Amino acid sequence: MTPRSRISPLDVVWRTCVAGPGCPGVAHEPYGRCLAHLAPAEVAEFLRGLTPGQGLDLRGTLLPEDLLTRVLDHVERRLGRARFDYAVFTGPARFGEVVFGGDATFEHARFDRLASFYGARFLRNVSFREAGFLRELSLHEARVCGHATFDHVTVRGDALFGAARFGAPPPGEAGAVRRASFLKAQFHGFTTFDAAVFEGDACFRGARFHRAASFRGAACGASAEFQGARFEGAAYLGPMRVARRLSLAGVRACALLHVETGGCRVVLRSAAVLGRLAARLSDAELDLRDATLSGPAAVTRRAGLVRVTSLDGLDAGALTLTGADLRACGLAGLRRPEGLRLRECQFAAPPGGLGLRLGWPPVRWWSRRRVIADEHLWRGWPAGGHAAGPGGERAPDPARLAVLYERLRQGVDDARVAADFAFGAMEMRRLGSPRGRARMLLSLYWLACGYGLRAGRAIAWLALVAALATAVACWAAGSRPAGKPAVQRPRIVRPVASASLPSPGLGG
Length: 508
Hints:
Structural class: alpha/beta
Radius of gyration: 42 Å
Distance between the termini: 177 Å
Strand content: 15-25%
Number of helices: 7
Number of strands: 45
């Protein structure tokens, strides 16, 4: 906002009032003075010359409430081209239900009291660039058919845009969808865009919300841009419908940041959330590269597929991902992997079937397990579905992958996924070990029982050993040559002569 006393002569491109050297109001012929400095009879004559739908030029004019009301009543609240640049509204400015048939400009205007455009209709473009609102601003249920510009505005009181509609062409007319721009706007009071509809882009780049901001039930037909915005109070961005992209890149949220949307891409790159983050998404893509989440954070899948495209450089002490698709998302760039909680998430998988290669072993059968996209990329496995690995990123070495698996395993709620991550850690440790005794022992450990995590492999080895032992025993028994049956001879027992018997003598 430019104060009235400091308007540069270069800003004034109209013939000014001759009533005083400091009055920048546009002069009306044949008086040579602005509307605020006309005599009562001259004001009455000026008003009698107004007709509904005609253009109105009150640039730089001081407008009390009664004078503005008389002007709007004489045009039956229907204006053509309306110019209120640098005007000062000393009382409540009530433009409710006014129809602006042409472009309307309120650039650098100052509203000392309430500024109400409740139900107003802007059939063309409207601009409030650098306007200042010292009290409340209301565009509730207003409709803007062209471009709506609120760049660099300052609203000291509450800003009410509930159920407003921006960018829709007038009924029966075809035209390109327009945009609504709030570039670097300052909202010091409560701000609401509940149930507002943006047919085109909604731009809030660099805007600052000093108190709570609400976009519940809002809809955006293109992209909603909040790059570099600052939310000092709670921000409720949803449930809202965004067709293309919801960009929160570089935002700073000091309190709760609630995001609820779907069917679009959600960008939180380099965002800094000091309070709690709650994101509820459906059929969306999420980018959290280089974000800083100081408070508890949760990303929950409501329906459909929620793909996380990047977590590289993310610094989060407590982030819970529920139902997220991590098949193409690298996790090696996480600053604190142990702070990540993974629930019902989808991960990449090894290629199915037999694998042939020139090394040893030449034939390999990959077991079905969950792997992170970084290992998928490091191994060079063929892309299947979304499991192509983090595109454009260099895969870490096996030693780092082993540590990453161990740190991620602490936050996995599924026992099977945790076991797969433990297997992956041992596998990366084995493949990253230099050739020698340690690698040989790990290879034997992997071959024997899958690092103690593949009971079926140990049972198979036991079964194989038992089968081999049985086969050897059978072979040994069957290799003895067939001989004649042994003949047992009867044992002859000879009687022993007794010493008590008399010797036979000769008879005489």
